[in-house]
Amino acid sequence: MRSKLPFLGFFCICLTLPCFAGAVVHHHIFVKLTPTSGELQVRDTMTLPPGDKPTSFTLNSGFTVNSADPGVRLEPVSGSPSSPATKLYRVTLPSDRSRFTINYQG
Known about the structure:
- This protein is 8% helix and 50% strand.
- It is mainly beta and 106 residues long.
- The two termini are 13 Å apart.
């Protein structure tokens, strides 16, 4: 059984939203680790700085990802040519929103 716990550090780094070089993105993260099965479940609520929409983020391609918010569109864009183990996601929010929640597990 292969443990996915080493990805814990990796997903934290990959959730940094690259398009906000100087801006602060607030994350409220709930993580459930199940060491015996190697399972990781994450619920991440992100609050974006004003005016910074749409946005994108990168996660390990082994995760199952979905949006927990109605009206928020989460679109897988592609794998990364420099790192085939990752996938880029684009998030489109309604114009009146700056916060969204994603769930991912693997």
